[in-house]
Amino acid sequence: MNGEQGAADDGSEGSGPPWSISDAVSWLLFAIAGFAVGQVLGYVILVVVATLNGHTADYARLAAQAVPPAWVVVSELVGLWIGFLGAIAAAVTFRGTGSVVNDLGLRFSWWDLLIGPVVGFVGQVVLIPILYLPLYHLNPHIQHELSQPAQRLTGGFHGGNLFIIGFLTVVVVPLIEEMLFRGVLLRSFLRLFRSAGRFLGPAFAIILTGVLFGLAHFEPVQLLGLCAFGVVLSWLAYKLRRLGAGILAHATFNLIAVLAIASSSAVH
């Protein structure tokens, strides 16, 4: 872990990629293409796995269930991750130095072990409830609706399979998503909005990255909370100039949700 090296490569300071507007636009296009390819691959892999499982005729119905089978969830995730990783690789290879560590700030400091979990815990336990507090009186079922994405992701898993999806959700998802959103996208926007000034430029970049993070999850009810937490993660990456704390915050945020679903399943 090294928190000092990351202080020299923030895209807003001109020392790390993307070095130009053209590079930043290319990174954005790579990210968009990676997201689109990930969606398509997720569907293709789902169809292939469904065929192998003998569910060719009903895979669409199974995928649309509130709690789909485990193989449906994993198929969709793997496709999406391939697209994300492809975008990350393309950005650092064709318009970077070729180093994910240097180009995206994929570094950790010992302080991140404290900062990350605290931010993730506060985000899940304090920030989200406060944001949705006004809606509790308007919609008494809001708490149930907010838990639906986590329920969809983990509800179909039991025993050892639950441990596997928990590992993927808490370890793999934060790492890949932070590299794409806070690595590729945030640094692209920091470069593109640089002319807006030392305050407005980063503010635009941080907010836009957080909003896109929320929109990318396709969860209307959870959109407000995802955008807000996305902004927090973007601010964290900008201030610390590395991804370590954000990855751990994201992991903690997801872990709390997984534990809540697992404990609820155990009770029932």
List the helices and strands and how they pair.
Elements: H1 21-52, H2 59-63, H3 70-94, H4 100-104, H5 112-138, H6 142-146, H7 148-154, H8 160-192, H9 200-215, H10 223-240, H11 244-267
Helix pairs in contact: 1-3, 1-8, 3-8, 5-10, 5-11, 8-9, 8-10, 8-11, 9-10, 10-11
How many beta-strand elements?
0
Largest sheet: none
Poorly predicted segments? 3-14
Q: Mind telling me the C-alpha Rg?
A: 19 Å
Count the DSSP helices.
11
Q: Describe it for me?
A:
The radius of gyration is 19 Å and the shape is globular. It contains eleven helices and no strands. With 268 residues, it is mainly α. The protein has one domain.
What structural keywords apply?
disordered N terminus; about 0% strand; mainly alpha; about 270 residues; 11 helices; globular
